[in-house]
Amino acid sequence: MPQTPPTRFAYLGPEGTFAEAALSSAVAPGEGVRRPAASVAAALAAVRAGDADVALVPLENSVEGSVPATMDGLTDGDPLVITREVFLPVSFVLAARPGTRLGDVRAVVSHPHALAQTARTLAERLPGVPTLPASSTAAAARAVAEGGSDAAVCAPIAAERYGLVPLADDVADFPGAVTRFVLVSRPGALPEPTGDDKTSLVAVVADRTGALLDVLREFAVRGISLTRIESRPTRDRLWVYSFSLDCEGHVAEARVGEALAALHRVCEDVRFLGSYPRADGRTNRPVPAEAADARFTEAGEWLARLRAGEV
Ligand SMILES: O=C(O)C(=O)Cc1ccccc1
Fold first, then answer.
1. How far is the CA of 132 from the centre of ligand 1 (A)?
2. CATH classification at residue 126
3. What CDD domains does the record point to (predicted)?
4. In testing the pocket of ligand 1, which one of 12, 15, 18 has its CB within 8 Å of the most ligand atoms?
5. pTM for the whole thing?
6. Residue 121 is part of which domain span?
7. Does one domain contain both 81 and 120?
8. 48: which residues sit within 8 A by CB, 6+ positions away?
9. From atom 9 of ligand 1, which residue's Cα is the shortest distance away?
10. What are the 10-residue block averages of pLDDT along the chain, 311 residues in total?
11. In contact, 22 and 139? CB cutoff 8 Å
Protein backbone atom coordinates (compact mmCIF):
# COMPACT_ATOMS: atom_id res chain seq x y z
CA MET A 1 0.00 0.00 0.00
CA PRO A 2 1.42 3.43 -0.90
CA GLN A 3 2.03 5.44 2.26
CA THR A 4 0.71 8.99 2.55
CA PRO A 5 3.68 11.34 2.86
CA PRO A 6 4.04 13.08 6.23
CA THR A 7 2.51 16.54 6.54
CA ARG A 8 5.16 19.22 6.09
CA PHE A 9 4.70 21.98 8.70
CA ALA A 10 6.41 25.38 8.40
CA TYR A 11 6.35 27.37 11.65
CA LEU A 12 7.65 30.79 12.61
CA GLY A 13 11.17 29.87 13.71
CA PRO A 14 13.86 29.37 14.68
CA GLU A 15 13.54 26.60 17.27
CA GLY A 16 12.18 27.81 20.59
CA THR A 17 9.42 30.16 19.39
CA PHE A 18 5.97 30.20 20.87
CA ALA A 19 4.87 29.14 17.39
CA GLU A 20 6.87 25.92 17.74
CA ALA A 21 5.30 25.33 21.17
CA ALA A 22 1.84 25.92 19.65
CA LEU A 23 2.60 23.38 16.92
CA SER A 24 3.73 20.84 19.51
CA SER A 25 0.50 21.36 21.42
CA ALA A 26 -1.54 20.86 18.23
CA VAL A 27 0.01 17.76 16.66
CA ALA A 28 1.11 14.47 18.16
CA PRO A 29 4.82 13.92 18.92
CA GLY A 30 6.57 12.67 15.79
CA GLU A 31 3.69 13.66 13.52
CA GLY A 32 4.77 15.29 10.24
CA VAL A 33 8.01 17.07 9.49
CA ARG A 34 8.46 20.48 11.11
CA ARG A 35 10.65 23.15 9.56
CA PRO A 36 11.31 26.57 11.02
CA ALA A 37 10.71 29.54 8.68
CA ALA A 38 12.59 32.82 9.01
CA SER A 39 9.40 34.92 9.17
CA VAL A 40 5.62 34.72 8.97
CA ALA A 41 5.86 35.76 5.31
CA ALA A 42 8.37 32.95 4.64
CA ALA A 43 6.11 30.35 6.33
CA LEU A 44 3.13 31.44 4.23
CA ALA A 45 5.26 31.60 1.06
CA ALA A 46 6.44 28.02 1.66
CA VAL A 47 2.81 26.85 1.70
CA ARG A 48 1.89 28.92 -1.37
CA ALA A 49 4.89 27.48 -3.25
CA GLY A 50 3.97 23.90 -2.27
CA ASP A 51 7.18 23.47 -0.25
CA ALA A 52 5.10 23.00 2.92
CA ASP A 53 1.55 21.75 3.48
CA VAL A 54 0.69 23.74 6.60
CA ALA A 55 2.01 26.99 8.07
CA LEU A 56 1.66 27.65 11.78
CA VAL A 57 1.72 31.40 12.44
CA PRO A 58 0.58 33.77 15.22
CA LEU A 59 -2.65 35.64 14.41
CA GLU A 60 -3.45 37.68 17.51
CA ASN A 61 -2.67 38.10 21.17
CA SER A 62 -5.03 38.81 24.05
CA VAL A 63 -2.93 41.82 25.16
CA GLU A 64 -1.41 43.28 22.02
CA GLY A 65 -4.04 42.45 19.38
CA SER A 66 -3.47 41.19 15.88
CA VAL A 67 -0.16 40.32 14.22
CA PRO A 68 -0.05 42.53 11.12
CA ALA A 69 2.38 40.26 9.22
CA THR A 70 -0.14 37.42 9.45
CA MET A 71 -3.25 39.49 8.79
CA ASP A 72 -1.70 41.04 5.70
CA GLY A 73 0.01 37.82 4.62
CA LEU A 74 -3.36 36.06 4.50
CA THR A 75 -5.08 38.96 2.74
CA ASP A 76 -2.51 39.40 -0.07
CA GLY A 77 -1.27 36.86 -2.58
CA ASP A 78 -2.68 33.50 -3.60
CA PRO A 79 -5.57 32.36 -1.41
CA LEU A 80 -4.83 30.44 1.78
CA VAL A 81 -7.30 29.14 4.34
CA ILE A 82 -7.21 28.60 8.08
CA THR A 83 -7.97 24.97 8.94
CA ARG A 84 -7.44 25.12 12.69
CA GLU A 85 -6.83 27.58 15.54
CA VAL A 86 -4.62 26.93 18.57
CA PHE A 87 -4.43 28.99 21.78
CA LEU A 88 -1.23 29.11 23.81
CA PRO A 89 -0.60 30.90 27.12
CA VAL A 90 2.59 32.95 26.80
CA SER A 91 5.02 33.99 29.51
CA PHE A 92 8.29 35.81 28.99
CA VAL A 93 11.72 35.92 30.58
CA LEU A 94 14.44 38.51 30.09
CA ALA A 95 17.42 36.37 29.10
CA ALA A 96 21.12 37.10 28.59
CA ARG A 97 24.45 35.36 28.19
CA PRO A 98 25.74 33.86 31.47
CA GLY A 99 27.61 36.47 33.48
CA THR A 100 25.59 39.44 32.18
CA ARG A 101 24.14 41.64 34.94
CA LEU A 102 21.03 43.77 34.60
CA GLY A 103 23.21 46.88 34.70
CA ASP A 104 25.20 45.66 31.65
CA VAL A 105 22.16 45.60 29.36
CA ARG A 106 22.31 48.37 26.73
CA ALA A 107 19.56 47.03 24.42
CA VAL A 108 16.78 44.46 24.59
CA VAL A 109 15.75 42.56 21.48
CA SER A 110 12.54 40.61 20.75
CA HIS A 111 9.52 40.15 18.52
CA PRO A 112 7.50 43.42 18.50
CA HIS A 113 4.55 41.66 20.18
CA ALA A 114 6.77 40.43 23.00
CA LEU A 115 8.29 43.91 23.45
CA ALA A 116 4.81 45.45 23.53
CA GLN A 117 3.62 42.96 26.15
CA THR A 118 6.59 43.65 28.44
CA ALA A 119 7.10 47.39 27.78
CA ARG A 120 6.02 48.60 31.23
CA THR A 121 8.04 45.99 33.12
CA LEU A 122 11.14 46.62 30.99
CA ALA A 123 10.81 50.39 31.52
CA GLU A 124 10.73 49.81 35.30
CA ARG A 125 13.66 47.40 35.40
CA LEU A 126 15.77 48.90 32.60
CA PRO A 127 14.81 52.58 32.41
CA GLY A 128 15.94 54.29 29.22
CA VAL A 129 17.28 51.07 27.63
CA PRO A 130 16.22 50.88 23.97
CA THR A 131 14.43 47.89 22.44
CA LEU A 132 15.13 46.37 19.02
CA PRO A 133 12.73 44.29 16.91
CA ALA A 134 13.48 40.71 15.87
CA SER A 135 11.56 38.34 13.60
CA SER A 136 10.66 36.15 16.59
CA THR A 137 11.41 35.72 20.29
CA ALA A 138 13.69 32.77 19.53
CA ALA A 139 15.51 34.73 16.79
CA ALA A 140 16.13 37.35 19.50
CA ALA A 141 17.49 34.74 21.91
CA ARG A 142 19.76 33.37 19.19
CA ALA A 143 21.01 36.89 18.38
CA VAL A 144 21.91 37.42 22.04
CA ALA A 145 23.72 34.07 22.16
CA GLU A 146 25.72 35.15 19.10
CA GLY A 147 26.65 38.41 20.82
CA GLY A 148 24.45 40.59 18.60
CA SER A 149 22.57 42.13 21.50
CA ASP A 150 22.66 42.08 25.31
CA ALA A 151 19.29 40.64 26.35
CA ALA A 152 16.22 39.06 24.77
CA VAL A 153 12.59 38.76 25.79
CA CYS A 154 11.69 35.16 25.00
CA ALA A 155 10.12 31.96 26.24
CA PRO A 156 12.02 30.17 29.04
CA ILE A 157 12.56 27.28 26.62
CA ALA A 158 14.22 29.57 24.05
CA ALA A 159 16.61 30.90 26.70
CA GLU A 160 17.58 27.33 27.50
CA ARG A 161 17.84 26.33 23.83
CA TYR A 162 20.37 29.12 23.12
CA GLY A 163 22.36 28.81 26.34
CA LEU A 164 21.06 32.01 27.95
CA VAL A 165 20.14 32.55 31.59
CA PRO A 166 17.18 34.55 32.90
CA LEU A 167 17.97 38.03 34.26
CA ALA A 168 14.31 38.34 35.23
CA ASP A 169 11.40 35.89 35.19
CA ASP A 170 7.82 36.71 34.26
CA VAL A 171 8.40 40.11 32.68
CA ALA A 172 4.90 40.25 31.13
CA ASP A 173 2.91 43.40 31.96
CA PHE A 174 -0.32 41.39 32.03
CA PRO A 175 0.02 37.85 33.37
CA GLY A 176 -2.29 35.34 31.73
CA ALA A 177 -1.79 36.54 28.14
CA VAL A 178 -2.83 34.07 25.47
CA THR A 179 -1.76 34.00 21.82
CA ARG A 180 -3.97 32.64 19.09
CA PHE A 181 -2.11 30.76 16.35
CA VAL A 182 -3.59 29.42 13.13
CA LEU A 183 -2.74 26.50 10.88
CA VAL A 184 -2.99 27.61 7.27
CA SER A 185 -3.11 25.57 4.05
CA ARG A 186 -3.73 25.98 0.36
CA PRO A 187 -7.49 25.85 -0.36
CA GLY A 188 -8.88 22.32 -0.46
CA ALA A 189 -11.52 20.29 1.32
CA LEU A 190 -12.83 22.24 4.30
CA PRO A 191 -12.76 20.84 7.83
CA GLU A 192 -16.11 19.18 8.61
CA PRO A 193 -18.56 21.32 10.60
CA THR A 194 -18.50 20.42 14.29
CA GLY A 195 -21.36 22.61 15.52
CA ASP A 196 -18.80 24.90 17.22
CA ASP A 197 -16.91 26.47 14.36
CA LYS A 198 -15.60 29.86 13.36
CA THR A 199 -15.40 31.40 9.91
CA SER A 200 -12.82 34.06 9.00
CA LEU A 201 -12.94 36.52 6.14
CA VAL A 202 -11.70 39.87 4.91
CA ALA A 203 -14.16 42.27 3.28
CA VAL A 204 -13.26 45.43 1.39
CA VAL A 205 -16.24 47.74 1.83
CA ALA A 206 -17.39 50.28 -0.73
CA ASP A 207 -16.58 53.93 0.04
CA ARG A 208 -20.13 55.04 0.89
CA THR A 209 -22.19 55.97 3.92
CA GLY A 210 -23.41 52.93 5.85
CA ALA A 211 -21.21 50.41 4.02
CA LEU A 212 -19.92 48.85 7.25
CA LEU A 213 -23.43 48.76 8.68
CA ASP A 214 -24.48 46.81 5.58
CA VAL A 215 -21.79 44.22 6.33
CA LEU A 216 -22.79 43.91 9.99
CA ARG A 217 -26.48 43.67 9.13
CA GLU A 218 -25.92 40.60 6.93
CA PHE A 219 -24.63 38.77 10.01
CA ALA A 220 -27.14 40.21 12.45
CA VAL A 221 -30.25 39.36 10.44
CA ARG A 222 -29.12 35.74 10.22
CA GLY A 223 -28.41 35.42 13.94
CA ILE A 224 -24.63 35.16 13.47
CA SER A 225 -22.40 36.48 16.23
CA LEU A 226 -19.02 38.02 15.41
CA THR A 227 -16.04 37.07 17.60
CA ARG A 228 -13.56 39.62 16.15
CA ILE A 229 -13.65 42.58 13.78
CA GLU A 230 -10.92 45.04 12.96
CA SER A 231 -10.03 47.34 10.13
CA ARG A 232 -6.79 47.22 8.17
CA PRO A 233 -5.63 49.67 5.52
CA THR A 234 -5.80 48.17 2.02
CA ARG A 235 -2.34 49.82 1.57
CA ASP A 236 -2.58 50.06 -2.21
CA ARG A 237 -5.59 52.42 -2.03
CA LEU A 238 -5.21 55.52 0.10
CA TRP A 239 -7.73 55.63 3.01
CA VAL A 240 -9.64 52.58 1.78
CA TYR A 241 -9.99 49.91 4.48
CA SER A 242 -10.70 46.24 4.64
CA PHE A 243 -12.46 44.62 7.60
CA SER A 244 -11.01 41.42 8.92
CA LEU A 245 -13.50 39.44 10.96
CA ASP A 246 -14.31 36.10 12.52
CA CYS A 247 -17.88 34.94 13.02
CA GLU A 248 -19.46 31.95 14.66
CA GLY A 249 -20.53 29.09 12.39
CA HIS A 250 -19.27 27.16 9.36
CA VAL A 251 -19.66 28.17 5.72
CA ALA A 252 -21.39 24.79 5.17
CA GLU A 253 -24.24 26.05 7.38
CA ALA A 254 -26.99 27.87 5.51
CA ARG A 255 -27.02 31.07 7.56
CA VAL A 256 -23.25 31.54 7.25
CA GLY A 257 -23.20 30.64 3.55
CA GLU A 258 -26.03 33.08 2.85
CA ALA A 259 -24.33 35.83 4.83
CA LEU A 260 -21.13 35.35 2.81
CA ALA A 261 -23.07 35.37 -0.46
CA ALA A 262 -24.77 38.60 0.66
CA LEU A 263 -21.39 40.16 1.48
CA HIS A 264 -20.22 39.17 -1.98
CA ARG A 265 -23.09 41.31 -3.33
CA VAL A 266 -22.64 44.34 -1.08
CA CYS A 267 -18.81 44.53 -0.74
CA GLU A 268 -16.17 45.42 -3.27
CA ASP A 269 -14.26 42.27 -2.43
CA VAL A 270 -14.58 39.36 -0.01
CA ARG A 271 -11.80 36.91 0.75
CA PHE A 272 -12.86 33.71 2.52
CA LEU A 273 -10.20 32.67 5.03
CA GLY A 274 -11.66 29.38 6.20
CA SER A 275 -14.13 27.63 8.50
CA TYR A 276 -12.56 25.61 11.33
CA PRO A 277 -13.34 24.23 14.79
CA ARG A 278 -13.52 26.80 17.57
CA ALA A 279 -10.72 26.16 20.10
CA ASP A 280 -10.92 29.07 22.54
CA GLY A 281 -12.78 26.98 25.10
CA ARG A 282 -16.07 28.74 24.41
CA THR A 283 -19.11 27.44 22.63
CA ASN A 284 -21.08 29.16 19.89
CA ARG A 285 -24.26 30.95 20.82
CA PRO A 286 -27.45 28.96 20.19
CA VAL A 287 -28.67 29.41 16.60
CA PRO A 288 -32.02 31.25 16.56
CA ALA A 289 -34.81 28.87 15.44
CA GLU A 290 -35.49 30.89 12.28
CA ALA A 291 -31.78 30.70 11.23
CA ALA A 292 -31.45 26.90 11.50
CA ASP A 293 -30.45 24.99 8.36
CA ALA A 294 -33.82 23.20 8.23
CA ARG A 295 -35.69 26.52 8.08
CA PHE A 296 -33.51 27.69 5.17
CA THR A 297 -34.14 24.42 3.35
CA GLU A 298 -37.86 24.61 3.92
CA ALA A 299 -37.97 28.27 2.83
CA GLY A 300 -36.00 27.44 -0.32
CA GLU A 301 -38.44 24.66 -1.19
CA TRP A 302 -41.38 26.98 -0.60
CA LEU A 303 -39.83 29.58 -2.94
CA ALA A 304 -39.20 26.93 -5.59
CA ARG A 305 -42.88 25.95 -5.43
CA LEU A 306 -43.95 29.59 -5.85
CA ARG A 307 -41.69 29.94 -8.87
CA ALA A 308 -43.10 26.74 -10.35
CA GLY A 309 -46.60 28.20 -10.11
CA GLU A 310 -47.60 25.89 -7.25
CA VAL A 311 -48.99 28.67 -5.07
O1 LIG B 1 8.19 35.05 18.34
C2 LIG B 1 7.56 34.04 18.73
O3 LIG B 1 7.99 33.21 19.55
C4 LIG B 1 6.21 33.82 18.20
O5 LIG B 1 5.75 32.71 18.09
C6 LIG B 1 5.40 35.06 17.93
C7 LIG B 1 4.95 35.61 19.23
C8 LIG B 1 5.59 36.68 19.80
C9 LIG B 1 5.15 37.19 21.02
C10 LIG B 1 4.08 36.61 21.66
C11 LIG B 1 3.45 35.53 21.09
C12 LIG B 1 3.88 35.03 19.88
1. 15
2. 3.40.190.10
3. ACT_CM-PDT, PBP2_Aa-PDT_like
4. 18
5. 0.94
6. 93-168
7. no
8. 77, 78, 80, 186
9. 114
10. 87 98 95 97 98 98 93 96 97 97 96 96 96 97 96 97 96 95 96 97 91 95 96 87 96 98 95 98 95 97 97 82
11. no
